[in-house]
C-alpha cells in the first residue's frame, strides 16, 4: 500500500494543539506493545522505539496505568505510579525530544477488563457486570471475572491517581497526557448505559455517567494545565465486550462540560461516517484528532480530505506507524509501506518493535 501526500497537503501543515507545536498533523495513535517489565517499568527498548517515530506530529504513548489496580488487562503493560516508572519515562521522553519529537502519555484504568492473575487485585467497575471476553494471564487464556462495583467513596481516589500520574508525566519531562476514555476501559464503562447500572451520582442520567471522566479531565487540567491534556473517546466502540445502546448523549454532556477548559485536543476513535461522529463534531470547537479505526487503501486520501475541509485538525494513525518509523517520509514520497506483523504486536523483545526498516535502511540493504 502506498499513498502520496502533496507538498502542500493539509496533513503536512503544522498545528498548535494546546501547548504543543506539532510540525505536522499525523499523530502516532496509542499502541500497547506489552514489553514493559513485570513491575510496570517501561522496557529498556522503549526509548529507541519511540525515538524512531519522533517525526510524528505528536506521539501518544501506549496506555499507561495510573495505579497497580488500574493495570491488570494485559501482561507487561507499563505504569506511571512509582519513582522507577517515572525515571524510565524521563529517559524515553529525553530520547524522543533529542530526536526532535513530542510526546503525550496515555493514562488509563482498565476497570472490569482487569484480571487478578495480572494485577494481583480484584478488578473494579461501575457495576458488577463482567466483560464477556478472555485475556491472556500467566496461566493461560481465562475469562474475565465479575468485577466489584466501586463504592462511591472509592471514586475520588481514582481521580487522584490520574492527577498524580499526570504530574509524574510532566515531572518526567513529557509534553502532556491523554486521558483514555475509550475502548471499553474504566472511563468508557462509566460512560456506558449498559455497563454502568449505578443509581448514585455516577450512574443513570447522561450527566451522571459522564461525571467521572469529566472530573478526571478537570483534575488533570488543574494540575498540569489544560494545554497539556487530551482526551480519547470511542463512542459506540464494541471493544472489551461493550454494547452501548446510548452512543451519544453522555458524550454530548461530557464535551459540553469540558469545553470551557480549553484542553489541547479531543481524540475520537470512530468511523467518520457513523452518526455519532457528526453529532459530536458539531459540539467541539477545539482541536479534534480522528482515528478512523480502519486501515483501508483510501485511508490517507480520506484523512487528507477531512483535514482540508477543516472537519479534523489532525489524524491519529496506529498500525501504519507501528510498522513504519519513517511513515511521514514515506507519505511524502509515496513509498510502499511496511506491513505490520500481527504476531509481534504483543510479543516480548526487539522483533517487530525496533527493527522495522526505514526507506534509507532498505536502500542501504539493497546496495550492500
Ligand atoms: C497493537 C495495538 C495496541 C493498541 N493499544 C492501544 C492503547 O494502548 N490505547 C488505545 O487507546 N488504543 C490502542 N489501540 C487502538 C489504536 O490506537 C487504534 O485505534 C487502532 O489500531 C486503529 O487505528 P489504525 O488503523 O491506525 O491502527 C491499539 C491497537 C493495536 C493494533
TrEMBL record:
One molecular function GO term is: FMN binding
**UniProt keyword annotations, A-Z:** Oxidoreductase
Per its Swiss-Prot or TrEMBL entry, what cofactor is needed? FMN
Which Pfam families would you find in this protein's record? Answer: Oxidored_FMN
Q: Which residues form the NADH:flavin oxidoreductase/NADH oxidase N-terminal domain?
A: 11-336
Cellular component terms (Gene Ontology) = cytosol
Family label: Belongs to the NADH:flavin oxidoreductase/NADH oxidase family.
Among PANTHER family, the record links this protein to:
NADH OXIDOREDUCTASE-RELATED, NADPH DEHYDROGENASE 2-RELATED
Q: What is this protein called?
A: Alkene reductase
Amino acid at each position: 500500500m502506498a499513498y502520496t501526500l502533496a507538498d502542500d497537503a493539509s496533513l503536512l501543515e503544522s498545528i498548535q494543539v494546546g501547548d504543543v507545536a506539532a510540525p505536522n498533523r499525523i499523530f502516532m495513535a496509542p499502541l500497547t506493545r506489552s514489553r514493559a517489565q513485570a513491575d510496570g517499568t517501561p522496557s529498556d527498548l522503549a526509548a529507541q522505539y519511540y525515538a524512531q517515530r519522533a517525526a510524528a506530529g505528536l506521539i501518544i504513548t501506549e496506555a499507561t496505568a495510573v495505579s497497580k489496580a488500574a493495570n491488570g488487562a494485559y501482561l507487561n503493560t507499563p505504569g506511571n505510579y512509582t519513582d522507577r516508572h517515572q525515571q524510565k519515562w524521563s529517559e524515553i521522553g529525553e530520547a524522543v525530544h533529542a530526536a526532535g519529537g513530542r510526546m503525550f502519555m496515555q493514562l488509563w484504568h482498565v476497570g472490569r477488563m482487569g484480571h487478578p492473575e495480572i494485577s494481583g487485585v480484584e478488578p473494579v467497575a461501575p457495576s458488577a457486570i463482567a466483560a464477556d471476553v478472555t485475556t491472556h494471564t500467566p496461566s493461560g487464556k481465562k475469562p474475565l471475572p465479575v468485577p466489584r462495583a466501586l463504592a462511591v467513596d472509592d471514586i475520588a481516589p481514582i481521580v487522584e491517581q490520574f492527577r498524580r500520574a499526570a504530574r509524574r508525566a510532566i515531572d518526567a519531562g513529557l509534553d502532556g497526557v491523554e486521558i483514555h476514555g475509550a475502548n471499553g476501559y474504566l472511563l468508557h464503562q462509566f460512560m456506558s448505559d449498559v455497563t454502568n447500572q449505578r443509581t448514585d451520582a455516577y450512574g443513570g442520567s447522561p450527566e451522571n455517567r459522564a461525571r467521572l471522566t469529566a472530573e478526571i479531565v478537570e483534575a488533570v487540567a488543574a494540575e498540569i494545565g489544560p494545554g497539556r491534556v487530551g482526551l480519547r473517546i470511542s463512542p459506540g466502540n464494541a471493544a472489551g465486550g461493550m454494547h452501548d445502546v446510548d452512543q451519544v448523549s453522555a458524550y454530548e454532556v461530557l464535551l459540553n462540560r469540558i469545553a470551557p477548559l480549553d484542553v489541547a485536543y479531543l481524540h475520537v476513535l470512530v468511523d467518520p461516517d457513523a452518526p455519532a461522529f457528526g453529532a459530536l463534531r458539531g459540539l467541539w470547537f477545539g482541536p479534534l484528532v480522528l482515528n478512523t479505526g480502519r486501515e483501508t487503501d483510501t485511508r490517507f486520501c480520506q484523512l487528507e480530505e477531512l483535514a482540508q475541509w477543516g472537519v479534523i485538525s489532525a489524524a491519529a494513525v496506529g498500525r501504519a506507524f507501528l510498522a513504519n518509523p519513517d511513515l511521514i517520509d514515506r507519505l511524502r514520497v509515496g513509498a510502499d509501506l511496511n506491513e505490520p506483523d500481527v504476531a509481534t504486536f504483543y510479543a516480548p523483545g526487539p522483533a517487530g518493535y525496533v527493527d522495522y526498516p526505514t526507506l534509507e535502511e532498505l536502500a542501504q540493504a539493497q546496495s550492500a
